[in-house]
Amino acid sequence: MNAPLRRVGVVVMVLFGLLFANLNWVQFQKADEYRTSDYNGRVQVADYKRKRGNIEAGGTALATSKETTGKLKFKRTYPGGAKYAHVLGYKPVNLADQGIEKVENDFLAGTSDQLIGDRIKDMFTGDESGGGNVLLTLSKRAQDVAYDQMRNNEQGVKRGAAIAIDPRTGAVQALVSMPSFDPNPLASHDTDEATAAYNKLEQDPGKPLINRAFGETLPPGSTFKIVVAAAALENGIGKNTQILAGPSYTPPTSGVPIKNAAPSICPERQVSLLEAVTESCNTGFAQLGVRLGADAIKEKARQFGFEQDDLTVGQIGEDGLPVEASRTGTIQNADGTVDQAALAQSSIGQRDVRMTPLQGALIAGAVANGGSQMRPYLVRQLLAPDRTTSYYTAQPRELRRPVSGPVASDLRDMMVSVVENGTGKKAQINGYTVGGKTGTAQSAPDRPDHGWFIGFALDKNGTPVSAVCVMLEQAGPGGSAEAARIGGKIMQAAIADSGGR
Questions:
Q1: Residue 499: its pLDDT value, please?
Q2: CA 243 to chain centre
Q3: CB neighbourhood size of 44 (10 A)
Q4: What distance in Å separates the CA atoms of residue 84 and residue 98, rounded to the nearest whole number?
Q5: Helix-strand-coil percent breakdown of the chain, rounded to 5?
């Protein structure tokens, strides 16, 4: 064989070798990815051949599948539209699943290993039994009130979040993020229409696709004082102990004074810890934080749930909707020493402190529940397609115990004083003991302040029935009072709805 033919033969053999290697790579390494890809037409037809299970709350279907005459047999619909969007998410044809639709996709689609018995039965009967049903913890009444109150808030705020939980169990009673969106166009079988709807939402400056209850962290302002008060109680300072206050306080190493929201707030040289919480005394808590030290503040925040990177909310102990970690910041100078000015500002929920609304509700819930913080969850039960068999029923589980019973009791008394005598009066509910803490947090020098409220409600026996956090972005003056009003309305609705208790 002459040299040119030999070279051609070698090239051909190399090409065949590469082709063989690529085929093996595709077959063994990429097979599952291609087989399950949302862009695989055969997969799409198979996904929509079986009726997808319902997502329900309180006996009401929030996500259903309706039969169509097109190539794809069933279409996903969301009767509640934007009201439940950030919980349910959406099930699109070509886009990525989101929300509970994603988390519980296998069970809803009927492909879960849990439903193998139903699929075997179908083989003998020739039926298509459909996917399983997911029952959520949401209180329909509380969700309705949260959605309506947030959308029609008296401050005209367009962005924010509200979440309510049962302090005894961790069950999510309501979850609203605004602005919201209608998931129905995203589930359209017209993929061009769905893509256009998604692109419009993605480009919206209000960022409606963000679940702000779980996924956004902002300075919590004075709501963080509950964490600092907890650290104080555990370091020998009682609720009636006098702490330094006054009209102004300049932290060590800083020429910038910290002042109170109004001259009438704790102008005295000293006030009790109870009074400092009730009046929301900035100068008192700034000095208290410096006195306790950065390590104590950061550790107590961590014990309440700050810095947790792996929290999800869905089933208990399973994957769920991801939650952004709340942070306290470093509170350090460049050389690693404690930045006293940053510590003072952090102790009133400013500087680099960042918190999700869920974290705020968890703090209030732990205080209400005697110091036990329950793991939050959204999925209450998984039912078979024919609804005769339960494959999962939530068993509440403690997440952590950030404070002892006696400390929780003192914090509860202080938070009740805020609602009865201080800045949280608008959260009051007739016949129930309500505790809370308002917060006003600076966002930027040229923007209005954020308004926060965290709180809880106890029945006449002292049993906690709801805990809430409401956050109104850039709400300006009166924002925290409006957040308190909305928080009270949501808890009142959760109490009234037996499904939310």
A1: 41
A2: 34
A3: 18
A4: 12
A5: 40, 20, 40
